[in-house]
Amino acid sequence: MKATLLSAFLLIAATGNALAGSHVYGPFPADYVEECGSCHVAFPPQLLTAPGWQRVMEQLDKHYGADASLEDKRRTAIADFLRRSASTRDKHAPTEASARLSRTAWFAREHGPTPPAKVSFAECTACHTAADRGDYSERSIKLPAGWRRAR
Ligand code: HEC
Ligand code: HEC
Fold it and tell me: How does residue 4 score in pLDDT terms, banded at 50, 70 and 90?
């Protein structure tokens, strides 16, 4: 039952991604949102390559200064979902051992090098007001006062 649900969600996620240029990546499977969307938004799997996600999922006990450990069965299911939905493009490859999607070549080109004061680029909702739904479309962007994307 769980596996069927996950596949259904996967199909929706894949279809969303196929709408080129829409930048709506969700909705995501409930398990993924529950476990990986409580401290930050559930990041779009499509914005990091499979080796990047693998690196993230292999070091959940040392997760960017937090402990995001999961019980084995859940971790495997989520890792599987991420791997299958991952990007296959070089521009989405991680550039450092910790594997951040905010440090890929694509992200740097889209966002410039410097986040607003006291905001991390990992805080997608600081600018993408519908990021909790996996929606990064232009109409939902609202930039913090005084910040402009540098080049
Ligand atoms: C206990 C809180 C917590 C949970 C649960 C959690 N994370 Fe994180 N995560 C963090 C923190 C803290 C950061 C660092 C944020 C920053 O740098 O501003 C982070 C960062 C990340 C990043 C890098 C973001 C970037 O800069 O590109 C990824 C990818 C990530 N998490 C994936 C996951 C996944 C996948 C899960 C579920 C298995 C998960 N997280 C669950 C706390 C959490
Ligand atoms: C400080 C503000 C800010 C933060 C934080 C931020 N973004 Fe963005 N993002 C932007 C801006 C500005 C653009 C460029 C929009 C454009 O080209 O018109 C953008 C573009 C995008 C696009 C392409 C959308 C489009 O319409 O071209 C995606 C996808 C995206 N961001 C994802 C993310 C993700 C995922 C995170 C968090 C890991 C994030 N962003 C964090 C400001 C931000």
Answer: low
